Amino acid sequence: YVVDVGAVVGVADGGEGSGQHEGSQRHVQGDELRPQLAKHGRGAVAGGTFSVLALIVVLSITYKFVENEGCDAMMAAILALSTFLILMPPTIVTKGGETVADIIPKAWVGSNGVITAILVAFFVSYVFCYCEKNHIGIKMPDAVPQGVAKAFTALVPGMIFFTCASAFYGL
Questions:
Q1: Which label site among 24, 82, 88, 127 has the fewest CB atoms less than 10 Å from its CB?
Q2: Would you give the end-to-end CA distance of the chain in angstroms?
Q3: CB of 113 within 8 A of CB of 56?
């Protein structure tokens, strides 16, 4: 690699005592860049991908499954995400023994929660499509705008999901 010494070496050792003039270039090995990438680059990338993997899984599986069935995919994905969040514990205990409440634990939205996310996605997708295809929901008059009518149609499946998730969480 050819890198700017002031940009990499200056950051690595405080910018002083490097023996190089600012703006000069030298060849560096990949091993010299790894500590800086680990410190600055990988944490943000991992936090934006692997640390939210279960959220991505529950949304994408539900959306594509319901879309392929010809039902309202966006509403089903929102209900699946809400159901998944209900199933997560809202508190954690810190190393000092203090309980922190009203949080979304990062451990469960990452790779640890993928199996649960898949199960929730398939459950919500199947039940939502079943309810929509069999007209199980609140019917609105034709004068009501379609967006409002779709929201009311999704109330019954939503109640089913949230009741099941709350009962399951209580076990």
A1: 24
A2: 56
A3: no
